[in-house]
Structure formats: structure tokens, C-alpha cells
């Protein structure tokens, strides 16, 4: 996966001042190994953090910079770090990198791990120093085989250079880092399910509290951060808070840059590092090049399959959490998908809900039974065999599987696109109700959830 460019992206060179995540990328898409990475100021931030900064100062710097999680939830990273216990006697603690990137239409972390593995390692090294963690794990999606090879080589290079292991940079600080490949479950994107899987248990989310910062891996304090989140840390430490905040566009409440992209039948599908606050229209037209000839934009999702659909008139929304929130959904991973006018929304939603139903851990009843129920209803509507009341039943499921109604956020994310699709494209669902067709024999009305 190479970083692509189109339109203005061809005229704007990537630099350390404007593109902290991607300026080191090679034009040929090959990995940046240790010698080249260090020649491009790699590990300079780590040396600064070890030599010139107290551990608590690193935490405070990340908090002041306003770095938020880049995995989709957007929780403030410095606040999360601040939850780790201050008790120095609790000397066994862990740092986990969530690299289980299984959100459909999302591949940003893959690019970073395959092409800039040392950026992630440096981010984890600085974070480990701040959090006083002596061991780290990169929990990697099992299908990312190339990333696994590149990360393991980079870890060995860092060990040989004294950047991992014992007495790092002569500081007396020890940090071991391991690459752990998962078994391939979407639910492992939830941090406590990831922890269970790492321990060799079934990947079910845990009850919270206690939160991982208190009771995590093998009962010890644990911090879990996303790949892109950790990759932001070196630039923040190296360049400072004011610089980091200056990167975003005016009006954005989120700071820094974000890996954003567009997939679907666009002319130039790809991935770009862009400032928070850029409009979705700029991303769609200037970078993705708009729709291919012969296709028209019907709707789009701003950040993965678990975000709600938006219409073409919503493209002027700014790409940051609050900006996308104003038009009724979430920023998510920031990698958008364009849906063209040839797509039937019922078929698209049936495909999505099949995926989410299959990936449910099955722990709680609303998710375990509600998602397959939605699939059965959508399949019937898709075949033109839906019954009167099926749409109301689907909307009832959207409510019963919404935020706060299930054990984790899997089901709320699964039904968000369903609710928005019915909101904007209800006639396509109504067309699949058998009793609405001329000459059709009305079928028995199903029980409506919440009726």
C-alpha cells in the first residue's frame, strides 16, 4: 500500500513540519529501515525524551498537545496515560499497541507498519518511558503478514542498536517489545477483548470497571493505544505542543494531522496525511478526484463501516470529530467510502450486517440475537419478501442495540449505518415489502421491537 496523491497533493511536498507521520516515506513504497530512519531524524525524539524530560513531563506534553486516539473512539491520549497508577511499587505494567485493524474500508495502520515500522517502535519506546512499562506488545491483525515480517525485523534492528532491551540509551530503563499476531477477530479492536486474546482466552470484552489502567494484562496495569496514535508521539515530543496544535485547520477542535482516505468508485482511491478540519469535499474532489466517469455519488461513510451514511450535501463538513458530529455521525477512522448510484442500499446493508453479526463475540443477548435478526429481515427485503412492519422492526433493533444498550460498542457501531440508510433511503427498503406490491397477499405482521 503506497501513499497516493492527486490534485493539490501533487503540488504540496511532504515535510517534517507539515506531515509528521509520512514525510519519511520512500517514493518506491519500500520500508524505511533503521539506518535510513535515523538519517531522517529517527529516534531523535526518543533521545530527547530519555535525556531531557522527566517521565511525568512526557505525559503532560502529550496531554497538552491534545492528541486523541486514532483508532476510532477519539479518547484523549494524555488523559488515558494519566490513569496509569503512580505507585512506583507497581513495577510490572504493560503497553499494548492495538494493530488489529479489521474495520472495513480502513488500511491506514497497515501502511505505517509496513513502510515505517521504526516510527511505531519509537512511539512505543517514548510511551513506555512515560508510562514506566517494562514490556510492550504489538497486537497485530493476523492477515497483516507483511507488516509482521517488517515489524519483527525492525524490532531486531532496534535491539541491536541498543534502542530496545536493557539499559536503553544508558538510562537504566528496560523495555522489551514483542509482535503478537491475532487469530482474526473484529472484536479484538475492543481493548479488553484484545487483552483477553493476548492472554490466550476467548476474545470477549471485559466488564469495566476495573479499567485496563488498573487491571489489564495478567491483572497488571496496562495502557492500550492505536498504531496511528503512537506514531504521533515522536513528533509531539520532538517539535512541541504549539507546533502540533498549529497543524490543524481553523475551526477544528482536534489537533494535528490525520491519515484520511477515500475508497469506492472514485478516480483516485488512496490514503493521505491531512490536517484536521479539512472539508470532506476537499478530500473527495481534490485528493480522491471525485467519482469515476459514468458514476454519481449517492452517499458516503466518513470513517469505516461502523459509521453512519451521509449524503453529497454533507461533503462540506469538516473532517474532525465535532465537524462530522454536526451532520449526524462519527469521524471513526477517517477513511471514507463513496457509494455510487448503482448500489442498492438494502443489499449493501445486508452485506454489512452479515459481517457484524459474524464478528459478534456472542456475549450479550442484544448483539448475539439482534444482529442476525437484522440480517434475516434484510435478506427478506432484498428478495422482495419483506413483511409489513419489517422496517419498523429494523428501526426498533437500531434503538435496542444503540449506545449503552449492549456490553461493548460493537452492536452500536453495527446498527449506526443501518439506521442512517433507512433514514435517507427508506423507499429502497419499502420496495422490498411483499404486501406493497400489486396482487401480493399480505403476510402475518411480525412482532415489532418496542411496540
Percent of sequence in beta strands? 5-15%
Order of helices and strands: HHHHHEHHEHEHEHHEEHEHEHHHH
Helix content: 25-40%
Extended strand count: 8
The top-level CATH class of the largest domain is Alpha Beta
CATH topology category name of the largest domain? Rossmann fold
Compute the gyration radius: what is it? 23 Å
Number of helices: 17
CATH architecture of the largest domain: 3-Layer(aba) Sandwich
Tell me the domain tally: 3
Structural class, from helix and strand content? Answer: alpha/beta
The CATH homologous superfamily name of the largest domain equals: NADH-ubiquinone oxidoreductase 51kDa subunit
Mean pLDDT: 91
**Largest beta sheet, briefly?**
4 strands, parallel
Low-confidence stretches: 1-11, 442-451
Largest beta sheet: what is the strand line-up?
3-2-1-4
Q: Span between N and C termini?
A: 49 Å
How does the overall form come out from the CA principal axes? globular
Keywords: 4Fe-4S, Flavoprotein, FMN, Iron, Iron-sulfur, Metal-binding, NAD, Quinone, Translocase
Organism: Pseudomonas endophytica
InterPro entries: NADH-UbQ_OxRdtase_51kDa_CS (IPR001949), NADH-UbQ_OxRdtase_suF (IPR011537), Nuo51_FMN-bd (IPR011538), Nuo51_FMN-bd_sf (IPR037225), Nuop51_4Fe4S-bd (IPR019575), Nuop51_4Fe4S-bd_sf (IPR037207)
Subunit structure: Composed of 13 different subunits. Subunits NuoCD, E, F, and G constitute the peripheral sector of the complex.
Amino acid at each position: 500500500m503506497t501513499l497516493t496523491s492527486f490534485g493539490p497533493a501533487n503540488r504540496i511536498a511532504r515535510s517534517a513540519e507539515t506531515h509528521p507521520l509520512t514525510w519519511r516515506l520512500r517514493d518506491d513504497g519500500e520500508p524505511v529501515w533503521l539506518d535510513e530512519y535515523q538519517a531522517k531524524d529517527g529516534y531523535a525524539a526518543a533521545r530527547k525524551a530519555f535525556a531531557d524530560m522527566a517521565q511525568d513531563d512526557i505525559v503532560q506534553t502529550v496531554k497538552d498537545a491534545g492528541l486523541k486516539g486514532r483508532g476510532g473512539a477519539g479518547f484523549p491520549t494524555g488523559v488515558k496515560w494519566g490513569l496509569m497508577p503512580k505507585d512506583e511499587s507497581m513495577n510490572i505494567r504493560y503497553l499494548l499497541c492495538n494493530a488489529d485493524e479489521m474495520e472495513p474500508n480502513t488500511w491506514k495502520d497497515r501502511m505505517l507498519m509496513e513502510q515505517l515500522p521504526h516510527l511505531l517502535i519509537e512511539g512505543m519506546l517514548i510511551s513506555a518511558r512515560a508510562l514506566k512499562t517494562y514490556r510492550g506488545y504489538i497486537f497485530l491483525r493476523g492477515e497483516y503478514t507483511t507488516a509482521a515480517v517488517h515489524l519483527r525485523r525492525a524490532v531486531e534492528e532496534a535491539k541491536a542498536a541498543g534502542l530496545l532491551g536493557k539499559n536503553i540509551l544508558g538510562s537504566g530503563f528496560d523495555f522489551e517489545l514483542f509482535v503478537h499476531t491475532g487469530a482474526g477477530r473484529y472484536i479484538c479492536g475492543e481493548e479488553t477483548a484484545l487483552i483477553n486474546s493476548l492472554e490466550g482466552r476467548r476474545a470477549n470484552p471485559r466488564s469495566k470497571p476495573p479499567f485496563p489502567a488498573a487491571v489489564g494484562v495478567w491483572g497488571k496495569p496496562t495502557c492500550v493505544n492505536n498504531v496511528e496514535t503512537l506514531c504521533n508521539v515522536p513528533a509531539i515530543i520532538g517539535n512541541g505542543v504549539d507546533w502540533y496544535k498549529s497543524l490543524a485547520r481553523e475551526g477544528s477542535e482536534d489537533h494535528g494531522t490525520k491519515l484520511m482516505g477515500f475508497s469506492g468508485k472514485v478516480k483516485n482511491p488512496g490514503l493521505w496525511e491531512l490536517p484536521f478540519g479539512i472539508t470532506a469535499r476537499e478530500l473527495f474532489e481534490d485528493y480522491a478526484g471525485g467519482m469515476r466517469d459514468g458514476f454519481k455519488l449517492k452517499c458516503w461513510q466518513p470513517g469505516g463501516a461502523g459509521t453512519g451514511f451521509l449524503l453529497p450535501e454533507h461533503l462540506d463538513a469538516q473532517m474532525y470529530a465535532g465537524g462530522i458530529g454536526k451532520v449526524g455521525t462519527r469521524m471513526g477512522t477517517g477513511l471514507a467510502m463513496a457509494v455510487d448510484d448503482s448500489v442498492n442500499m438494502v443489499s449493501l446493508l445486508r452485506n454489512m450486517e452479515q459481517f457484524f453479526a459474524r464478528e459478534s463475540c456472542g456475549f450479550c443477548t442484544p448483539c448475539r440475537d439482534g444482529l442476525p435478526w437484522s440480517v434475516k429481515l434484510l435478506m427478506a427485503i432484498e428478495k422482495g419478501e419483506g413483511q409489513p412492519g419489517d422496517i419498523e422492526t429494523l428501526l426498533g433493533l437500531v434503538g435496542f442495540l444503540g449506545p449503552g444498550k449492549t456490553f461493548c460498542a460493537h452492536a452500536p457501531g453495527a446498527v449506526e449505518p443501518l439506521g442512517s440508510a433507512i433514514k435517507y433511503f427508506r423507499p429502497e427498503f419499502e420496495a422490498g415489502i411483499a404486501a406493497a406490491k400489486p396482487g401480493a397477499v399480505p403476510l402475518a405482521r411480525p412482532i415489532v421491537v418496542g411496540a
